Amino acid sequence: MFDMMKMMGKVKEVQDRVREAQDRLGNITVEGESGAGMVKVVANCKKQIVKLDIDDSLTGAESKTILSDLIVAAVNNAMDKADETAREEIKKSTEGMMPNIPGMDLSNMFGG
């Protein structure tokens, strides 16, 4: 028999774990790069840029357009990795908490 109170308790527990995981995302960092490592961006999993490193060979005026393109590529790479890592962190935090219902991905439901 379906126990609604037990299920509601599980939902609250899942919400608490997701909230805790989301709080941790600011401390988890990923690195994106472009131009064979000439531009590197470190971002946290809250999609905030933490560090930008540009190889000295790219700082000349003639390289401005290339540098701009490489920074955009590195930032986008870091943001993709941050999204993936955040989804994995949320999934780990809620693993085994809810029944496995085909087609129901809780990581997306909670902002993953």
Would you summarize the structure shown here?
Binds to DNA and alters its conformation. May be involved in regulation of gene expression, nucleoid organization and DNA protection. The chain is α+β, with helices and mostly antiparallel strands and 112 residues long.
Main β-sheet, in a few words?
3 strands, antiparallel
Dominant shape:
rod-shaped
Our count of helices gives 3
Q: What is the fold-level CATH name, i.e. the topology of one domain?
A: Ybab, Chain: A
Structural class: alpha+beta
Q: What number is the mean pLDDT? A: 80
* CATH class call of one domain: Alpha Beta
What is the correct CATH architecture of one domain?
A: 2-Layer Sandwich
Oligomerization category of the chains in this entry: single chain
- Order of neighbouring strands in the sheet with most strands: 1-2-3
Termini separation:
32 Å
Radius of gyration: 19 Å
H/E series: HEEEHH
* Counted beta strands: 3
Helix content: 40-55%
Looking at CATH, the homologous superfamily of one domain is Nucleoid-associated protein YbaB-like domain
Strand content: 15-25%
Which residue ranges are poorly predicted, with pLDDT under 50 across at least 5 consecutive positions? none
